[in-house]
Input
Amino acid sequence: MPVSAGRETADAEGLAVGRRDARAGRASASTLWRRLLICLAGVTLIGAIGGAACILFAPGLLFDEPSCALPAHGPHLGGCIASLPIPDIAVTITATVRLSPNGDTLLLGGALRSDTTKVVVAAFNIAERREMWRTALDDFGPDVRITVSATGSKAAAWGAGGIRVLDLPAGKPVIAVPAVVLGNRLFFDVAFSEDGADILTGDAARRRSFRIKGAASESTPAPGFDQAEACRASGLVGQSNGGSVRSRDGKSVVLLPTALSGAPVQLGRSARSSELAAAICGTKSVSVLVGPAGWEDVAALFASFSPRNDRLAIVYSGKTADGKWRTLIDIRDARGSMERLASFPISGNVGYRIGWSQDARRLAAIRSINGTTDALIYAIP
Output
């Protein structure tokens, strides 16, 4: 069948166009491959530079605490098991917190962020991540420190206004011990006696027991703190922000040579032997502790014995190369060996804000980072 010239011309033009498109497609594909190879080379170079930077600056760039979740093989291995935000209560860096005996409730206190003239103590359900109750602390001051009795039926909050004892779980006030009764000396530790009938406070030289029911002003020396004739004991008891801390039964003392102040033993420097004698006076065992390897550049900021004196938590704190806070909580077996049981690195600033459960298998830490405050709950093996 004859084909018209117009159709022939059209087919020829279409074939020519198709050939040009094919050549253009091959050129485009070649160009695309060259660009991909260049991009891959660039990514490889950037990765190599980044890897070298990580190796060079690893202590500052790679620092981060493990994720806060139940450990894969169970809580007996230890680690962060829960976290919850603390949005409207300003827990000062020198406050302390506490867990209920079974570790399911966190108690803390401080001024309201919206109105710093109002101070409260509050309880949080850890599993449900919610506040359960709060009680106002009138004329108390912003620093609020908390302890809980062994049965969990009472809590005590103390600060500039003295000591307030509260009934749990509602937080109803029971008794107040004004600061003037305590000789205007408030210490970092207040503890309940085992039966919950007394509260104990004071340093090694002035440890006293106050009866909750009756005349609170009638104090007696706490058991285990009878003054030795040979020396006058010194140092804080139970919890300390200095270079030594004594157990609440008076039997052991731990020395922290890397503390910011008041260390009777200092690494690489001389110290008065009289200060050391006073720090260990009347005790049966003495331990000297430093932080683990890799934390030589931080200071021992705070130390806290567990309620039964069987464990000790030490908070080490410092800054990374870029000026951000980092914290390490070191847990030791205080029953004699002082073996390290766990170490918890934390991004941010914790300060003194830690608190035990009664069995010392849980520890709470309040952490400030990037303008926010949250509570981290740790299981201890």
The helical segments are 5-56, 58-61, 273-280. The longest helix spans residues 5-56. The two ends are 95 Å apart (CA to CA).
